[in-house]
Amino acid sequence: MIFRCVNLRAGAKLFLSVTFTFLFLTIFIGKDLRAQEAKDMFGVCAACHTIGKGKLVGPDLKGVSARHEEAWLIKFIQNSQAMVLSGDETAVKLFNENNKIPMPPNDFTDEQVRSLLSYIENYVEEPAGEETAGSFADSKVAEHKKLETSHAPTKDRSRNYFSLILISICAILLSLSDLFILKMIRWKVVHIIIMLAAVFVMGGIVVVEIQNLGRQQYYSPEQPIAFSHKIHAGQNKIDCQYCHTTAEESKHAGIPSVQLCMNCHNVVKSGSQTGTTEIAKIYEALESGKPIEWIKVHNVPDHVYFNHAQHVNVGKLECQQCHGKVEEMDQIVQESTLGMGWCIECHRTTEVQFTTNDFYKNYTKLHEELNTGKRSRIVVEDIGGNDCQKCHY
Amino acid sequence: MKKYWRSIDEYKTLQKDLTLAGDGGQEFSIDGMSDEEVKGNTSRRDFLKMFGFSIGFATIATSCETPVRKAIPYLIQPEEITPGIANHYASTFYDGHDYCSILIKTREGRPIKIEGNELSPISKGATNARVQASVLNLYDNARLKAPHKDGSPSDWAHVDAEIIPALDKASADGKEIVLLTSTIISPSTKQIIKDFKDKFGNVTWLTYDAISMQAMRKANEKNFGEAFIPTYDLTNAKLVVGFNADFLGTWMSPTEYTKQYSAARKLLNGESAMLRHVQYESQYTITGGAADDRVPIKPSDEVVVLLNIYNYLAAKLSQPVYPVADTSIEFASYAEELLENQGQSIVFSGTNNLNIQLICNAINHLLGNYNQTIDLSKHYNLKQGDDQAIDQLISKIDAGNVGAVIHYNVNPAYDAPNAEAYKTALAKVELSISMADAMNETAALCKYVCPDNNYLESWNDAEPQTGVYSTQQPTIRNLFDTRQAQESFLRWMGNAQEYHDYMEAFWQANIFPLQSTFTGFIFFWNQCIHDGVFAVDAEKKDFQFTSGELKAPAFIDSGDFELVLYEKIGLGDGKYANNPWLQELPDPVTTATWDNYVCVPAKYAEENGLKLEDVVRVNDLFELPIVVQPGLAYGTVAIALGYGRTSAGKVADGLGQNAFPLLSTANGLKSLMGSKVSIERVAGKTYPLALTQEHHTMEGRDLIRETTLSKFLADPASGNEQHAKDAEVNANLYDEPKFTGFHWGMAINLNSCTGCGNCVISCQAENNVAVIGKEQVKNRRIMHWIRIDRYYSEDHENPEVLHQPLMCQHCDNAPCENVCPVAATPHSSEGLNQMAYNRCIGTRYCMNNCPYRVRRFNWFEFANNKKFDFNSSMSTDLGKLVLNPDVVVRSRGVVEKCSLCVQRIQEKKLLAKTEGRQLQDGEIKTACQQSCPGDAIVFGDLLDPNSKISEIQRNPRMYHLLEHVHTLPSTSYLTKIRNKKS
Question: Chain A residues with CB inside 8 Å of B83's CB?
Answer without folding.
Answer: 246, 250, 252, 254
